[in-house]
Amino acid sequence: MEGRAYQIFTAIQILAACALVWGLATWPSPWNVQRYIGTALVVVGISCIVMARYQLGKSFSITAQARQLVTSGIYSKIRNPIYVFGAVMITGVILVVQKPALWIVLFIVVIGQTLRARREARVLEAAFGDAYREYRRKTWF
């Protein structure tokens, strides 16, 4: 994703993150331990997603593409930090809204992200070969 499409997509994500934080801050339930923990998880999740997106730079894309192998920053420890911290964020949302049925949503998202990560791994391995296999060996998910 490049140019104008990248900027529009990023702007939509920023607006969505702001709307999510505002919605959770004004959610009509009492502030208890669960809500505080959930809010903290949402803030950590969003912050880490933003950091990962920034570190990924022009390599970010919606579909699996092999532009360059990013192995620095948070990517030096986690191969798919956007997926990991997306799950952290969703966990936080579930804790804030206190709707147990939403745990099913998290389960479905984790399965989907795992399948997507595997697809991306195949594309990266085909493009970068041994360099990607070595990177995969040194990192988590």
UniProtKB/TrEMBL annotation:
Indicate where this protein resides in the cell: Endomembrane system
Q: How does it sit in the membrane?
A: Multi-pass membrane protein
Query: Chief localization class?
Result: membrane
Keywords of this entry: Membrane, Transmembrane, Transmembrane helix
Annotated PROSITE patterns = PROKAR_LIPOPROTEIN
InterPro entries from the entry? Metal_cation-efflux_comp, Phopholipid_MeTrfase
Q: Name a Pfam family for this protein.
A: PEMT
Cellular component per GO, a single term: endomembrane system
Q: TM spans, by residue?
A: 6-24, 36-56, 82-112
Q: What is this protein called?
A: Isoprenylcysteine carboxyl methyltransferase
